[in-house]
Design goal:
Blueprint (H helix, E strand, L loop, with lengths): L36 H6 L22 E9 L10 E7 L35 E10 L12 E8 L32 E7 L4 E3 L3 E9 L6 E9 L3 E12 L5 E9 L3 E14 L6 E3 H7 L7 E11 L12
Parallel strand pairs: 6-13
Antiparallel strand pairs: 1-2, 1-3, 3-4, 5-7, 7-10, 8-11, 9-10, 11-12, 11-13
Length: 320
């Protein structure tokens, strides 16, 4: 090496490192015989690199570094000295295969980009087990990526054995939602008709038919209730339910008035659908209410009919 000329400042050339290398924290560089692996790493506790590096967290996971663990083992009858090394290395800035000839498609596709860390260390020839554990920025085991290991790796005298381990990471839990939004219309009253007349004698049949249609073709449920007037001798009872050619449905009931007077009835039609639990048909308005949207879906008519006296008193069980 040539000496510096007088007054000239010494010049240094720093080789580029991947990551932010803080040289001030490096220990002195030793010269002399090559140290054994145990001696090389006795200066630094297990899990330490001896270098202060700015961690770079993988954008797809919580991984900032990878812990390498190398354990000497006996694979045959070779001389065996127990040895174990644990050291953490940060993720590199580049991604594999990174356009590097010899790494593309071996095994990662040339267009892929995989985060990785690398450990190069000199070891005694022999047989080793290697385990890698992804770490988060706090140095704890990653929750996103699993460990990987390989056993029975031979290190031969004068050669470098290169091992690629793949730490499988978990992807996000994702599925799909398919939303179908359907329109529903309530039933519509077509007509209410009396078989003979709105006026009947007490204690005689009053037959009334109601016709409803549903714009969506849903099944219908009819209900008949008394809304006013004296007590009925016979409450409304269904005589027939008939689908019509135009899609409407007609239901006829029979009722009997006990005494002379005005009787008020109400007929209501509800459209129906099949219950999600398979229990049968339910009213659509009940289905909506259960889902948090309590809208009515029915149509009704309240109407009177009149019973005239047939001369008897004391109800229909009395003699005329």
């Amino acid at each position: 090496m040539k000496a510096n000329t007088a007054g000239a400042q010494p010049r240094f050339r720093l080789l580029p490192f991947l990551g932010s290398l803080m040289l001030g924290l490096m220990g002195p560089i030793a010269c002399g015989p090559t140290a054994t692996p145990e001696e090389q790493f006795s200066r630094h506790p297990a899990g330490q690199t001896g270098l202060a590096l700015t961690l770079r967290v993988d954008e797809e996971t919580d991984v900032a570094a990878i812990r390498f663990k190398i354990d000497r083992r006996q694979c045959s009858d070779e001389p065996f000295t127990p040895f174990s090394l644990t050291i953490d290395k940060p993720l590199e800035e580049i991604r594999l295969p990174g356009g590097i000839p010899g790494l593309e498609n071996m095994p990662f596709d040339s267009w892929s980009a995989h985060a990785f860390a690398d450990l190069f260390v000199t070891l005694d020839a022999g047989c080793y087990d290697v385990t890698t554990q992804p770490l988060d920025a706090a140095g704890e085991a990653s929750e996103d990526c699993s460990p990987a290991s390989s056993s029975g790796i031979w290190v031969n005298d004068g050669q470098t054995t290169e091992v690629l381990l793949i730490n499988q990471c978990w992807g996000p839990d994702r599925g799909a939602i398919d939303v179908i939004s359907a329109l529903n219309h309530p039933p519509e009253l077509v007509e209410v008709a009396f078989e003979d007349s709105k006026f009947v004698y007490q204690c005689t049949d009053q037959v009334i038919c109601a016709t409803f249609r549903d714009p969506d073709g849903d099944p219908l449920e009819f209900t008949w209730t008394q809304e006013g007037g004296p007590a009925l001798y016979v409450a409304p009872e269904v005589l027939s339910t008939t689908p019509n050619a135009d899609g409407s449905i007609t239901q006829c009931i029979r009722t009997v008035a006990q005494d002379p007077g005005q009787y008020v009835l109400k007929v209501t039609a509800y459209d129906l659908l099949h219950a999600p639990d398979g229990s049968g048909l339910i009213r659509i308005e009940d289905y909506l209410a259960a889902g948090g949207t309590p809208f009515p879906s029915n149509d009704s008519l309240t109407f009177p009919f009149y019973a005239a006296s047939d001369g008897r008193t004391g109800g229909c069980d009395a003699a005329p």
